[in-house]
Amino acid sequence: MLLLFTSLLAVASHAQAQGENYASAGYQRGFPDCQAGPLANTTVCDTAQDPLTRATALINLLTVEEKLNQTGSESPGVPRLGLPAYIWWNEALHGVANSPGVNFSDSGDFSYATSFPQPILMGAAFDDELIRDVATVVSTEARAFNNDQRAGLDFWTPNINPFKDPRWGRGQETPGEDPYHLSSYVHALIDGLQGGYNPKTKRVVATCKHFAAYDIENWNGNFRYQFDAQVNSQDLREYYLPPFQSCARDSNVGAFMCSYNALNGVPTCADSYLLDDILRKHWGWTNEQQWVTSDCDAVQNVFLPHNYSQTRPGAAAAAFNAGTDIDCGTYYQHHLPAALSQGLINETRLNEALIRQYSSLTRLGYFDGPQALYRNLTFADVGTASSQALALKAAAEGIVLLKNDGILPLQITNGTSIALIGDWANATDIMQGNYLGPAEYLRSPLIAAQNLGADVHYAQGPGGAGDPTTDSWLPVWRAANDADIIIYAGGIDISVEAEGDDRVAIAWTGAQLDVIGELASYGKPMMVLQMGGGQLDSSPIRDNANISALLWGGVPGQDGGTALFDVITGKTPPAGRLPTTQYPSRYTQQIPMTSMALRPNGSLPGRTYKWYDEAVYEFGYGLHYTNFSAEVSPVRSESYSIQDLVSNCTEQYKDRCAFETVNVNVSNDGDVASDYVTLGFIAGEFGPAPCPRKSLVNYQRLFGIQPGASQTARLNLTLASLARVDDRGNLALYPGDYSLLIDTQPLATVNFTLTGDETTIDNWPQPPAARSLASDYFVPGYGSEIVLDE
Amino acid sequence: MLLLFTSLLAVASHAQAQGENYASAGYQRGFPDCQAGPLANTTVCDTAQDPLTRATALINLLTVEEKLNQTGSESPGVPRLGLPAYIWWNEALHGVANSPGVNFSDSGDFSYATSFPQPILMGAAFDDELIRDVATVVSTEARAFNNDQRAGLDFWTPNINPFKDPRWGRGQETPGEDPYHLSSYVHALIDGLQGGYNPKTKRVVATCKHFAAYDIENWNGNFRYQFDAQVNSQDLREYYLPPFQSCARDSNVGAFMCSYNALNGVPTCADSYLLDDILRKHWGWTNEQQWVTSDCDAVQNVFLPHNYSQTRPGAAAAAFNAGTDIDCGTYYQHHLPAALSQGLINETRLNEALIRQYSSLTRLGYFDGPQALYRNLTFADVGTASSQALALKAAAEGIVLLKNDGILPLQITNGTSIALIGDWANATDIMQGNYLGPAEYLRSPLIAAQNLGADVHYAQGPGGAGDPTTDSWLPVWRAANDADIIIYAGGIDISVEAEGDDRVAIAWTGAQLDVIGELASYGKPMMVLQMGGGQLDSSPIRDNANISALLWGGVPGQDGGTALFDVITGKTPPAGRLPTTQYPSRYTQQIPMTSMALRPNGSLPGRTYKWYDEAVYEFGYGLHYTNFSAEVSPVRSESYSIQDLVSNCTEQYKDRCAFETVNVNVSNDGDVASDYVTLGFIAGEFGPAPCPRKSLVNYQRLFGIQPGASQTARLNLTLASLARVDDRGNLALYPGDYSLLIDTQPLATVNFTLTGDETTIDNWPQPPAARSLASDYFVPGYGSEIVLDE
């Protein structure tokens, strides 16, 4: 056994030797030389063939050892064949970002990329066209970086897990909490990133992550690496998976990433039910150009701490055989050789994984030579004036007005005296959140106010990370004394909410409320900018009559300060909507982060606006500088037959079939031109009890509605808009009374009825019997989930 | 109201203006000029008077405004009187340390101080003379820094809260979990720091912190700033307070620090029951040279988040009136002016607080001119050869041998081939933990092994902070392949356990167990160094037959690597004992960190070795390179009359009265000379049920017992050794059967009986009626403690 082990180590060691040395040996990343290299006359270089044929031909040229070498996120390539090294791990969450595969220059060309807001703020814009435009800029810049051998062609974005728990450190990476919203958003995003839903040559490959039920970093000893999410089929199908269905089934995304956590006892990267039964079979994601990567070292975590296999090769084989094609890390390269020699994997599966990788690269034009599409993009296409303007627009569109006693919009002219106080007042890279690359500039609120000619009295804040110190306070009082208007810009940043770092509380951190409260007692016009991705409980600000206004500004990217002041001054009137529920601070003491159920249960409150009704500000909330009213065109009928709806539907996936397109005529009844986000919710008593308060089914942002004028939003409802999920995960239509509500405090309502029998429109693949939810599941040696009440 | 507020701000602003500008205006820290300055002919400069008289005279010279200015941790002084600025906030936890009052030079003289191990490792030495020696070095170096105007004369050390919960991020700052151990340790420490228990001129003033029941940083939204510790009188008197009693009553410490948390509903800094009834009255800590400071911004926290007062001046007044003399921060300076004008405080109390401060400085020779004691100390007294040797000795004495199959001691000669792997292998400042100053050198395990002539194959580890990455693994396998012996040096550091950052799990972090397990499979001699202050669950290492040895090395200070290899090679045979329980990883899932009870209750396990019996390695555990046996001299009697014991006791504090001095004859039965820590535990069924498993009552470290030789330890038992605490906090003697156990797996046992009636020997002051423990206590707006089971 020891001898075998040693020899296998030698194999891995060989692989690594290549991986470590290819750069210094002049063997670098780059496009394969299909003109003069060893591959020139092989099928992979034959652009007349389809990607599968080309990739298969390539893989047939490799030895087993060479194949095993290409199973990690850093593929050393095959020198004898002129197959270059390739790094699969590239990031571009909200712009091309630092990562193993992305290499920014220290100065000059390629020293920056456009840095958009974090997705949570772009989600708040409820503007899918904006998302498509942003994603197109990101993929354009990514291609320019790739052409300079500074990035790969696949990017591990988007993070499309629903932002269920306000504590989640990575919620800022997502567009919000609502599964329909995320599904619609990601559909537009993938179009922009990949250059269409089925292009001949993809712009880049996007990667939907983290599949699935991943939304915990660490909470009371429940680390993401070992957490076993207990989710029933109803919640899985209804809440956790729709964005992924949108990625795979509806948007043809090129890649998926499985997650760190286990789902009902099986680490997702080793879960063939998830990766094969649902993802590939049920969603029809069967193209061999599509691959699954593990989250980084998630394969290692299958062994430890998940303890899903007794041996390391066994853990690697479990992930590989389940359908995880690429291991982010070196665990495959280190342990698959033993797995192969022990018969735990076979070469057929090895070929399949590699064909997926290289057919994906083929589809990206990797083997098509310098005349291929997108090869002409250069740094001149990075950070263009229009891209920079789009970054500003994306931020301004998302900012949400939560409170306004009339102080806003604020006239700021030369010499307007403003105290700008708080840790976000002179924000720099905290405006970029995480997964960031260098930006050409970072315009803080301070810079933006000065650019407007204001006389700014700036003071740093009392510290956002929870450790108050009054040492920095006296400049605060001086600034407040010296100014006519007080703006406090604080909240949280990645020192409080971050990857690996969930929050433990959602109250304003540290001494901020003390400082805000004291500033409010000055009796001067005062407003608060609540910054950060996750919501804070701002009820003390909402309820303080001496605070005139409250804006949520999220994580606004390179031009965040400008965007905030564009909204404050009314240059861009606010029209963003909260993409997540703002919970009261007690919420985190009422429910453990590990609880995955959406519905209220005993003393556990429900999750998201669908099930929780004590929000400080609810999902979709957002004020304007004007007032809107709405009228809804009558729908075809007051009553619909379920059987007619289903029998008239000829789509393969019946939930996509049209139901009604509802025209909503929105009128601006005030005196300020403004965008308006038309939100359509369905509510009613139908389907399995309990019924949600309401569910978002469509939205459309209208732009620049002039005072006294109106515009019409078209809300395209489908059978999915009406459907509910039963306890086995089946999607069905149910008889009952339905209401379509326009906006959170409805401006208009349409009622109608569905008649006939309950009819399933999507039969959900059932988990293996052994996978049924174990209420007393226990991860050996790592502690079970804390249950507050049983 | 606004006018008043504004004028009060002006006062505070004035104070701050001085505070901010005194340095730049040439008005700096330094000794008052009692020869030629304005104070020269005043009473404070009259060395013939007592400190109280002198300080009172000084305070009588100040205006009210000047007095209010001197209530923060940075006193601006009084320029017109030539009273210098003084910074109270100086740190010296395990050597003079960076802090507002301590200023290291960038190079040359005063660019470093001796950096001892963290207290948790010094505690493991169970050697009070060592602690006295270390403290003497620290106070000597502190005086040298003070003479160069680089430090103050008071230091905010020790942290003497018992290390109750293994998650606590600051447990490393304490000597361990046992209240007797801490009381004995701190008694020696204060002697060394202050230069005796009642010296005419103190070397420095020590500050016992954090008073009291502070041992949480943040846990699931329970931040130290708002946490309300619910502790009954029994646990308070028995567990949380003994070290503080040792400080105040038995060691005459110069200062106390109240803590962030509340205790049974009252923030400790505003708690006159704690600061007056217990500390000053019950413990006789009535000298006016003794003062209480708040932890930094703990006064601010009285307002928010504790919400203990409705107004900020009210919160400041509550703390001030309760006995908090100094506010670390600026909250007093900002809000006491309003408190005074509103009649919430009076000038008498203001005088008292300032007299305490300045009589303390007087007692330190501050007003005694350059001929005063300790004024001759210079940088030549810093980092002397003997001090550096003491830092090495302190580390080596504490290291604990947990497992050894005979591989240790290890012969290391020129060319011995060692793989040294892990994040602690080349440790630098992580060896210093927190509250550190620059050291002259930091000798890592790697350096130490190389100094021994070993052929070291070094590889960094897989990351200690919980985020595994296999990218760094292949060098690990190479190092292991290339060496004959494998040493893994890992564990945790201040990226995992830190101030403000409790752990959420106590399993080995990240991928370390995977790497360790794979290294063990090489079949080479292998050992593990478990580093860090808090314990990790090392049962997987204990139970792995392929791992030969396990050492716990704590946080070993500037010469930690040398100390580790001194123990490994047998140059210093191991004799340290675990100062805390090593709990299994499940423990943290079984009990919330907020639970303050010591005894098991329902499904909640007990805390510390006294109440918990499923330890991986128990408190006091530690192996040697030899075997010891022990014999105990018979005690006077097999039965004692409680009434006789009490009536023969003439001490003011009866618990101090002698009971028996037990002679323990310890024989070295093996063939390696070794130190031996003689631990004496009392066990038995007596007093209030339930009874603890056992309780440490005395210890003595014996040095260099030769093979075949023996030495005698003298364990001085007092009435406190026999006493128990009832549910009202009273200390009493109880009839029953007692056993004195020598060592954790007892080498010897003495049984005896106490007869007669239960007799109280310390009547505990009862809390005000309203302060009785509220089982459903709730901090408004901040969430209550999570209760797992009721």
From TrEMBL, chains A, B:
EC number: 3.2.1.37
Signal peptide boundaries: 1-17
KW Zinc-finger (keyword) present: no
Gene Ontology terms: biological process: arabinan catabolic process; xylan catabolic process
Matches recorded under SMART domains: Fn3_like
Gene Ontology MF annotations: alpha-L-arabinofuranosidase activity; xylan 1,4-beta-xylosidase activity
SUPFAM superfamilies per the UniProt record, alphabetical: (Trans)glycosidases, Beta-D-glucan exohydrolase, C-terminal domain
Organism: Elsinoe australis
Family to which this protein belongs: Belongs to the glycosyl hydrolase 3 family.
Keywords (A to Z) from UniProt: Carbohydrate metabolism, Glycoprotein, Glycosidase, Hydrolase, Polysaccharide degradation, Signal, Xylan degradation
Residues covered by the Fibronectin type III-like domain: 676-746
InterPro entries: BXL (IPR044993), Fn3-like (IPR026891), GH (IPR017853), Glyco_hydro_3_C (IPR002772), Glyco_hydro_3_C_sf (IPR036881), Glyco_hydro_3_N (IPR001764), Glyco_hydro_3_N_sf (IPR036962), Ig-like_fold (IPR013783)
UniProt enzyme class: hydrolase
Xref: PANTHER family: BETA-D-XYLOSIDASE 5-RELATED (PTHR42721:SF3), SUGAR HYDROLASE-RELATED (PTHR42721)
Stated name of the protein: xylan 1,4-beta-xylosidase
Classification via Pfam families: Fn3-like, Glyco_hydro_3, Glyco_hydro_3_C
Top-rank lineage group of the source organism: Eukaryota
Catalytic activity field: Hydrolysis of (1->4)-beta-D-xylans, to remove successive D-xylose residues from the non-reducing termini
Pathway: Glycan degradation; xylan degradation
